[in-house]
Q: What sequence folds into this?
C-alpha cells in the first residue's frame, strides 16, 4: 500500500496561478528575507535560527508569545511564507514555531532521502533543541503526514493535533490525484510561487531539481499506517479538509471514527477529536483561500480545556 501526500498540489498551484495570480498573493509575499516575513506577518521581526538536528541545519522562526507553543509544518515545495495570514492570526494569541523541513526553504538538503518518519524525528529534535517539552502541532498536506508521524512516534511531545488535507492510506485520496505524479518536472514550476520562494530562500538555489526528485521519491515509497496506530493517538485531533480536496470525505470520516468521533454526542458526549469540512474549498484553497475559516476553527480548538481522561 502506498501512502502519498499531495505533491500534485504544486501542479494545481501553478495552474491556478496562471488563471488568477491573486490566488497566491499571500504565498508570494515576504519571502525575500526572514526579517521581512516577520514584519509583514506579525508586526515585529520573528526570532529566527538554525537548529543542528540529525545532520540538518533546520531553519525555524518563532512568532508571537504566550500560550501553549504551536508548531507549524508546511506542505511539499513550500516555505514559511505559505502560511501568510494563517501564521499572522495564530501568532496573535500564542507562540508559533514555523519550521522548514529538509530541503525546503532556508533548510539545506543533505545526503539522505525524504521520509515522513525522519522528518517527524527532525521536528522532535528541533523541539528538544528549543527546550519545548510539549506543543500543539498543525500540519498541512505533506506537513500533515509529518505531524501524524510525530504524534505516533513521539506522542509525549504532542498535546493537540491539527491535520489539514492529510490521509493515512492511499485509498483515502482520489485516484486521479496520483495520475500526474510521475510526470512532474522542475520545468513545470517555472515562474511559480513555489519555485520563486525556493530561489529566494534556499542556500543553494540550483538544488530545486533535486528537491523535486526527492519529493517524487518520497511519494513512491511503500508505507502503511495501521488503523491501530491512528486509534492509539491520544492527542485530541482536529481534522480539516476541503469539500473538493484530494482527500475523500469518506476517508476523513473514517479517520475521525478511528480518533474517537462518529458518536451521538447528545447521549455519549462530544468526542475529543473534531472534523471540519470547508465548503467550496480545494486542496490548495485550504491554505491560500480559507485563512478566515481556519482562524475561526483552530484557535478555539487549541484553547479549549483538555478532555478529562476516562
A:
Amino acid at each position: 500500500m502506498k501512502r502519498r501526500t499531495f505533491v500534485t498540489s504544486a501542479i494545481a498551484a501553478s495552474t491556478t496561478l496562471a488563471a488568477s495570480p491573486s490566488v497566491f498573493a499571500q504565498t508570494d509575499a515576504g519571502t525575500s528575507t526572514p526579517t521581512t516575513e516577520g514584519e509583514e506577518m506579525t508586526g515585529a521581526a520573528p526570532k529566527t535560527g538554525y537548529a543542528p538536528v540529525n545532520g540538518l541545519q533546520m531553519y525555524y522562526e518563532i512568532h508571537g508569545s504566550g500560550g501553549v507553543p504551536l508548531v507549524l509544518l508546511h506542505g511539499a515545495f513550500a516555505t514559511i511564507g505559505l502560511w501568510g495570514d494563517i501564521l499572522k492570526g495564530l501568532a496573535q494569541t500564542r507562540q508559533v514555531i514555523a519550521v522548514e523541513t529538509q530541503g525546503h526553504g532556508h533548510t539545506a538538503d543533505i545526503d539522505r532521502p525524504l521520509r515522513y518518519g525522519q522528518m517527524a524525528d527532525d521536528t522532535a529534535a528541533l523541539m528538544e533543541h528549543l527546550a519545548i517539552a510539549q506543543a500543539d502541532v498543525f500540519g498541512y498536506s505533506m506537513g500533515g503526514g509529518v505531524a501524524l508521524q510525530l504524534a505516533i512516534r513521539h506522542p509525549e511531545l504532542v498535546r493537540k493535533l491539527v491535520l489539514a488535507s492529510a490521509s493515512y492510506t492511499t485509498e483515502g485520496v482520489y485516484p486521479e490525484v496520483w495520475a500526474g505524479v510521475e510526470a512532474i518536472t522542475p520545468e513545470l514550476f517555472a515562474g511559480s510561487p513555489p519555485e520563486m520562494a525556493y530561489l529566494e530562500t534556499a542556500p543553494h538555489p540550483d538544488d530545486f531539481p533535486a528537491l523535486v526528485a526527492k519529493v517524487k521519491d518520497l511519494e513512491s515509497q511503500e508505507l502503511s499506517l495501521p488503523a491501530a496506530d491512528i486509534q492509539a493517538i491520544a492527542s485530541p485531533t482536529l481534522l480539516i479538509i476541503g469539500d473538493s480536496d484530494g482527500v475523500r470525505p469518506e476517508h476523513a470520516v473514517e479517520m475521525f471514527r478511528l480518533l474517537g468521533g462518529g458518536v451521538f454526542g447528545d447521549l455519549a458526549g462530544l468526542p475529543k477529536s473534531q472534523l471540519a469540512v470547508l465548503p467550496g474549498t480545494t486542496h490548495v484553497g485550504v491554505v491560500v483561500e480559507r485563512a478566515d475559516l481556519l482562524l475561526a476553527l483552530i484557535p478555539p480548538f487549541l484553547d479549549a480545556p483538555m478532555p478529562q481522561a476516562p
Summary: Residues 116-129 form the longest helix (14 residues). The chain has one domain: 9-303. Residues 152 and 232 are 8 Å apart (CA to CA).
